[in-house]
Amino acid sequence: MGRMEETAEMTIAYYISSPTWGGGEQYVFDLAGAMKAGGKVTPLFLFPAGSDKEMIQCFSGIGACPTFPFASKLFRFSIFASWQLAKILERNHVDILHINSRFSYFQAAMAKRMCRRPVRLVAGQHLVRKATDNVLWRWAYRQIDTLVCVSRLVRDTYIPARLENSFKHIEVIHNSVRVAQKDCIAPDYAAPRIIYHGRICEEKGVIGLLRALERITDLPWQLDIAGAVAPEYKAQWQKALTVCPVRDRIHLLGFRSDIRQLLPNYSIGVLPSVVPEAFSLTTLENMAYGLATVNTNNGAVPEFIQHDRNGLLVPPDDTNALSAALRSLISNPELRQQLGEQAQKDFQEQYNYERFMDKMNTIYGL
């Protein structure tokens, strides 16, 4: 892949598929912000109708945020929606369309073919799932110039051998997070402070976290939970909180766009996902700020967290194991420090944002 001229500037359109903030949206926010800061990229964000206003406001500080009303599963095979997308790409002189949801693959592929200007298509795969294999999808895969998988697990799961030749170019580029290194020191407190940050939904196993901590009433601790509650999960979540016997030790922070400014106030981070994580931004953020982490071992997290070396791993949906891991960290400040310092060192040496950006610059041709 040839690099563009040093003086060239390009417009990259990022197709936002979710109306609420999550790991994928944080990934795009960081990436586009870093690209703009480099001075060679003008970002553009295409938001689905009904997107969270606070999220749009955050993105608007980086680039224009037009609404694309066809950014939903309902229109994924719509020729009309693809034509509308092509018009947006032409009108904004877009050079690269970056998509991060498989539901937009066909729509983006058709738009690329309809567009009257050359547009490169970069697709990110952030989920641990198998690719659909039929004639229509194989055609869409062939329109993708580069497929970026965020972990080896994602690549191996998503692309079986029979689909290898359906993609022009495949890269595994581990996620990263932008952090201020001078702030990457997590203090310790007499009562350890634990944080969960991410979507509050069934897949993340947050109710299991409450049940695990219910068994640790003989030790001091505080749990803060930051994140938006999925609409379909609100009733179940409220019920779990109402009957939780340690509710007085749990603080709900709501959605926080400044989560990375808060992390230095914690010593333990936890991600109890019951579904496989593709490559957790939450865990990377915890590592970057020197938190001792507890994670489930059913996804790509073991690619960068090694049990008892830079974090603790437990089986998914295993309340006993999660409780035991948290107890070991709450009761042992030396272990917290040891795991947190090693995690931070590993992040800085292997998963820092500069390395990530070098790889993405190559993908974009910068």
Notable traits:
366 residues, 6-stranded parallel sheet, 15% strand, disordered N terminus
Q: Per DSSP, what share of the residues sits in E-state strands of 2 or more residues?
A: 15-25%
Contiguous helical run count: 13
- Got a strand count? 12
Q: Which strands sit side by side, in order, in the main sheet?
A: 2-1-3-4-5-6
**Overall pLDDT metric:** 92
Q: SSE order in H/E notation?
A: EHEHHEHEHEHEEHEHEHEHEEHHH
Tell the overall outline.
Answer: globular
Question: Unreliable runs, pLDDT <50, ≥5 residues?
Answer: 1-7
What is the alpha-carbon Rg in Å? 21 Å
Q: Helix fraction?
A: 25-40%
Major sheet summary line: 6 strands, parallel
Q: How far apart are the first and last residues' alpha carbons, in Å? A: 11 Å
Determine the structural class based on helices, strands and strand pairing. alpha/beta
Folded structure, characterized:
With 366 residues, the chain is of the alpha/beta class. It contains 13 helices and 12 strands. It has helices spanning 23-37, 53-60, 79-91, 105-114, 135-143, 152-158, 206-213, 234-243, 259-262, 281-288, 319-330, 333-350, 353-364, and strands at 10-15, 41-46, 96-99, 120-125, 146-149, 170-172, 193-197, 222-226, 250-254, 268-271, 292-296, 312-314. The strands form 2 sheets. It has a 6-stranded parallel beta sheet with strand order 2-1-3-4-5-6, sandwiched between helices. The longest helix has 18 residues, at 333-350. It is globular, with a radius of gyration of 21 Å.
